[in-house]
Amino acid sequence: MPVTERLRLTALAGGFALAMVPALALAVLTAVAVPLVLVAVGVPLLAVLVPATARLTAAHRRVDTALLGEPVTTDYADTTGAGPLTRLAVWARDGARWRDQAFCWFAATGGFVLSILPVALLTAPVVHVAVSLALGERVWLWLALALGLPVALVAWWFATPALFRARLAVERGILDQDRVPRLERRVEEVTVSRADSLDLNAAEIRRIERDLHDGAQARIAAAGMSAGLAEKLLRTDPDAAAELLREVQTTTVDALEDLRSLVRSIHPPVLADRGLAGAVETLALSVPLPVTVELDVPRLPAPVESATYFAVAELLANVVKHAHATRARVTGSHDGARLVVRVSDDGQGGADADGSGLTGIRRRIGAFDGTLRVDSPLGGPTEVTLEVPCPTP
Amino acid sequence: MPDALRVVVAEDQALLRVGLGRILEAGDMVVVASVADAASLPAALARPDVGLAIIDVRLPPTFTTEGLQAAIAIRAERPTLPVLVLSQHVEPLYARELLADGRGAVGYLLKDRVIDVDAFLAAVRQVAAGGTVLDPEVVSALLAGRPVDRLTDRERDVLALMAGGRSNAAIAARLFLSEKAVGKHIGSIFTKLDLPPAADDNRRVLAVLAWLDG
């Protein structure tokens, strides 16, 4: 860790240390105000102090979120429409408010020590030297230069990152009441999306089996029957045999076409060759209305490309079937972390965001934590936005 | 053709229904009814002169084993009506269900077998005459799971063909042996597998199948 980073942490620690002043004030005032509720004065006092405390902790949550790179959040119990006394009662039962209090006490005591140390270790020797110089105390000056300065600086160098991390960890522990519920929600989401993916996969495999059975397999069997019969009739009825062989030809061609369309429905070769942009352009050519494609996306992991491709295919099919549109548009970009694709049309709007088609797409991309947003006012236009988190490989 | 075999076909795929019909007619049989689902079968089989039902395993509306269920139901109701079940894949389990009543006059073949038109027509006639015809795929699946090490290679060939419902003469022709040699092999197989000797082809097939399936 370079010296500049240590200096930055020291500055931040200084900022944290300064929070001691409002934190201590709020903590002490609140502690005083609580018993004063008995003589009524406490009620208006707390009506000011509790929101003020929430301001302070909110500021800290913002800073912590930025520093940790993951959300530090909380949910206060709802007090909208409550009278002053009811509100007090709600606050008293609200764990998040007590956490705010705990934070104030921490910031005013242990947190203050953790944060002031890096600042003190860096500045104390300097101050010491300056004071010694000002007072003309030669002995103290040499002592400070020879011992105090190096010891303090070494201590500063090594202790600062750890002290800062410790303060952040405790702050998160106190302020981020949501961490466990958030993880629980996440596990729930993942459980649902995993079940959805398994269902989708199973349905997909059944469809493939059905398509094979009813398509290529049946046609090949039929072609075989015709060929077998042709062989039997070759001598006795050559004309009929020739007719049967012509049937064999067309049936074989049909079987090949079946196999091709099945392959396309599993994983279009152009998707494998050219990625999402190429595949969607090809798709647009087969849609019976003008489709503008503007996709500026790099090659992405195959499962994401595939899910997005089939989502776009389904959305375009919806445009053709339901929108009464004269044109459609597919735009998309990737910002290095997130793929965003928009499919829009100038049709009549009124798409049902909870209809089976859109729900299917939502489930399909849900496996990748993707989301689907539908904006389709009656009278149109319709815009469907897919967002899939997906770092460039 | 007053003596022609009268056949009812249940097959949901039009292409195959037509193909089957043409082949049966080329074999001098009469298709008296072609139906596309199992529900229409009883009405089609109501005619007393029907000599055989050919049923696809997979029929609407569930597209699972409706045809098989229909075949089993028909055999329970009309034990004398020969039934040939066709499928795009054969399962030993389904063969066992179909053969469970041990009465013969039953067949279970891959649709692939229809392509060899003469062999298929021969199998149809054999089932119609009360014999049992089982697809070689099923037979080899059953053989694979059984301790047939005691048999010689030749005896195993004979066993497979016999389990498929072939007569001694047919086995002899297929393996380029004399009928007498085939008879000897069969006797040896029965001895090695501890099976009671059986007179007619069908009893013999069923005995072997029961052993294979046991």
Tally the beta strands of chain A: 5
Mean of pLDDT of chain A: 88
> So what's the CATH class of the largest domain in chain B?
Alpha Beta
Biggest β-sheet of chain B, characterized?
6 strands, parallel
Number of H- or I-type helical stretches of chain A: 12
**CATH fold description of the largest domain in chain B:** Rossmann fold
Would you give an account of this structure?
The complex is a heterodimer of chains A (393) and B (214). Chain A has three domains: 3-175, no CATH class; 185-266, Single alpha-helices involved in coiled-coils or other helix-helix interfaces (Up-down Bundle), CATH 1.20.5; 269-389, 2-Layer Sandwich (Heat Shock Protein 90). Chain A contains twelve helices and five strands. Chain A has helices spanning 3-18, 20-36, 42-68, 84-93, 95-108, 110-135, 138-175, 179-233, 238-266, 269-285, 302-323, 356-366, and strands spanning 291-296, 328-334, 338-345, 371-375, 382-389. A five-stranded mixed β-sheet of chain A has the order 1-2-3-5-4, with helices on one face. Chain A is elongated. By secondary structure, chain B is an alpha/beta fold. Chain B contains ten helices and six strands. Chain B has helices at 14-26, 41-45, 66-77, 92-99, 117-128, 136-144, 153-163, 168-175, 179-192, 201-213, and strands spanning 6-10, 30-35, 52-56, 83-87, 106-110, 132-134. In chain B, strands 2-1-3-4-5-6 form a six-stranded parallel β-sheet, sandwiched between helices. In chain B, helix 7 packs across helix 9 (179-192) and helix 8 packs across helix 9. Chain B is globular, with a radius of gyration of 17 Å. The interface between A and B is medium-sized, with 18 and 20 residues.
